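> call design_seq(struct)
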């Protein structure tokens, strides 16, 4: 079955029970049904790129960052509503526009005073970091549940390398917060810090995935990924053709797509298959590529 080209360059997909939301490099949003047919038109609710997003309680929630004008928004848009095109970028060139403009069609929207990072849904709660300000847990209506200081790790600070929060992930102890340089901080359900440590990897971390049976899968920025059973274990490092852009668990094994290849890891075996385009996301048995096309998963 062939699928229509999306008409824009995708960077990520958020999936729910009835929808797939495709996010484009320029802030485009396309809503697809389970058969990957587009619902309505592609829209840009706010005139800046979407930096992180997730789905919670019937809403798609996103963060928008416009670095030129030093502004950011976090907003929830109902999945079952008709999505609409927002104002153009020129509206941000006025002081009034920068203060008053919000993503159109939102159920709630907030101005964020520092760049929001790593927005994640864990058990119906939203977790995110605010650059150098703090980390937060809010409910689906944007009411704060807890907050804590922005994490730092002395071993990483002493190395004087750029570092930022890139992931929140559920773990057996509670919620783990990960930084790109390998910092890990674990919180309980009330936000209290249980432990913190730093792990060494050959490249910076780009994403973190956890599965109760398979353990941890750490996507790295270059041509490697890492796996291990428990936080603090010595990681197993695996070489691949290029960066990974999406990874999921299927049939008790990790599968992924990325820079001109698809791959899978079953027990200790890693297999990759080249692809012509760059794989952005895995949906069912298909891969969405960077040119907006759907292709069969290759590995």
């Amino acid at each position: 079955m062939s699928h229509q080209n999306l008409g824009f360059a995708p960077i990520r997909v958020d999936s729910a029970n009835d929808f797939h939301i495709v996010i484009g490099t320029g802030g485009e949003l396309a809503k697809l049904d389970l058969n990957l047919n587009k619902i309505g038109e592609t829209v840009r609710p706010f005139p800046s790129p979407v930096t992180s997003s997730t789905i919670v309680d019937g809403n798609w929630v996103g963060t928008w960052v416009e670095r030129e004008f030093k502004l950011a928004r976090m907003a929830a848009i109902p999945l079952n509503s008709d999505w609409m095109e927002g104002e153009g970028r020129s509206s941000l060139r006025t002081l009034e526009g920068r203060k008053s403009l919000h993503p159109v069609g939102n159920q709630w929207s907030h101005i964020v005073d520092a760049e929001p990072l790593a927005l994640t849904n864990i058990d119906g709660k939203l977790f995110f970091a605010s650059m150098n300000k703090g980390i937060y847990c809010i409910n689906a209506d944007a009411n704060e549940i807890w907050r804590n200081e922005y994490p730092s790790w002395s071993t990483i600070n002493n190395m004087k390398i750029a570092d930022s929060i890139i992931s929140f992930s559920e773990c057996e102890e509670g919620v783990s917060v990960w930084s790109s340089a390998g910092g890990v901080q674990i919180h309980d359900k009330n936000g209290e810090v249980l432990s913190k440590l730093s792990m060494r990897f050959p490249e910076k971390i780009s994403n973190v995935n956890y599965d109760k049976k398979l353990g941890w899968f750490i996507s790295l920025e270059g041509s490697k990924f890492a796996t291990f059973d428990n936080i603090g274990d010595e990681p197993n490092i695996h070489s691949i053709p290029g960066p990974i852009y999406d990874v999921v668990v299927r049939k008790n094994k990790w599968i992924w797509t990325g820079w001109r290849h698809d791959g899978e890891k079953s027990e200790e075996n890693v297999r990759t298959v080249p692809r012509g385009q760059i794989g952005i996301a895995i949906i069912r048995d298909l891969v969405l590529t960077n040119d907006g096309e759907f292709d069969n998963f290759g590995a």
